[in-house]
Amino acid sequence: MAGDEKIAVLDFGAQYTQLIARRIREMSVYSEILPPNTSVAALLQGGYRGVVLSGGPSSVYENGAPLPSSQLFEAGIPVLGICYGMQAMGYLLGGDVVPSERREYGKAEIELTGRSPLFEGVRPDAGDRLQVWMSHGDTVRRPPAGFSSLGSTTNCPVAAMADERRRLYAVQFHPEVAHTPQGGTILSNFLDLCGVKRDWSMPSFIETTIDAIRARVGSDRVLCALSGGVDSSVVALLVHRAIGDQLTCMFVDNGLLRKGEAEAVVHTFRDNFKINLDHVDATSRFLEALRDVTDPEVKRKRIGAEFIAVFEDEAKRLGHIPWLAQGTLYPDVIESVSFKGPSATIKTHHNVGGLPENMTFKLLEPLRELFKDEVRRVGEVLGLPADIVWRQPFPGPGLAVRVLGDVTAERLDVLREADAIVQEEIRAAGLERELWQAFAVLLPVRTVGVMGDFRTYANVVALRAVTSQDAMTADWARLPYDLLGRISNRIINEVHGVNRVAYDISSKPPATIEWE
Description:
- This protein has a nine-stranded mixed sheet, with helices on both faces. A five-stranded parallel sheet has the order 12-11-10-13-14, sandwiched between helices.
- It has helices at residues 17-26, 40-45, 84-92, 183-194, 202-217, 230-243, 261-272, 283-289, 296-318, 330-335, 372-382, 386-389, 409-428, 481-494, and strands at residues 6-10, 30-34, 48-53, 79-82, 96-112, 129-142, 148-152, 160-163, 168-171, 222-225, 247-253, 277-281, 323-325, 362-364, 437-451, 454-467, 475-476, 498-503.
- It has 516 residues and is of the alpha/beta class.
């Protein structure tokens, strides 16, 4: 569904790889993340106008370190190496890459010593020094033949380099992060050097996607997995815009939803949007599938399999429906696939790794090229209400991965009531849009407490609130103490069976946003 004007980002395992792709898309150029061993032939046949080599945790001189093909640098495609990507470029082309005398992490200043179109419009902060963000343990001590050094730090003799003839560029720092204030200008300059048109936009995505859905589906019927979250809601409206009454949305109440959510979904889509909606109460089926299951990966797979089983059963009742539409996003696809060398699989996403191999549906995933913020923009263009567009992300397996340990109807009820208080107080404080997610988690432990004159031995609820742009990295939210106090007091006083509330102050990485 993307156009011909696109950039490839080869993923060598950096935590910032997806951020590189997002920054490029924000500049109206479509970008895709590919494995580090993607062949030059595939890049040329794919029509990529430029290639970015991401950072990564490896050392280029170690056995088994992931490296791009050396033929890439002779293919005539502009290449930008970032951090490990710069070291890989230097190493393969005959430069000298060595361990740094001192590792360099965090804020640094580069002294610009050369000129290049890559730094066009970049204004040094003081003298010839440019503030950047470093994260490396190796360094290019001597650039390859044909390259000129563009800058250095006290710890990095070659902090940027370029071979203008071959349009090969590299920087040791991370231009994609906010801590490199003029990094956006550097990335934009690279796109100019690639000669790409800046025509990637959400209206253009909608137009081409609707055409693609019509061409792919033809006169077939489509069943849409509707949860009421922003992803599935955008899919439903997008597919409905494309094929109208050929679409039937199925909303499965799996018993793992938040308080009042099932009723709200039915009202919004059946009554307001007039979309064909099949409402299925499958609570008992899902709870039975989760009986005595405590492992989070098993939970996800059981829930994914049960979703498909419900869909297939309902589809038989509804008649022949060969297509299943769902809200798989680009991070879902990337997180569920472990390339050689880069990021390991953190968790199986229910939309990707949890689907059974013998599933009878053909999948329609119109959002699988998009990041979350792009999906929100699509929703706005399509006219979705703000309360849906800006709804905080909710895990596909629902509250099952927020009830740690055994998932029972009773424990789900406790969490539902606690989480409803969290949502009410966050909205009342005006923080709903500032936070990426805020929610409650029910822990598999009990603690001693005192209520009135009685000893209690009851549940512990953890609060989780984070700020993030794309969920690939996240920081714990510094909520006001009085807000935390109100949430804690309300949960303990209003939710039967809870006597203690804790606040999670872990960031991602090293933690994840969800506890499971």
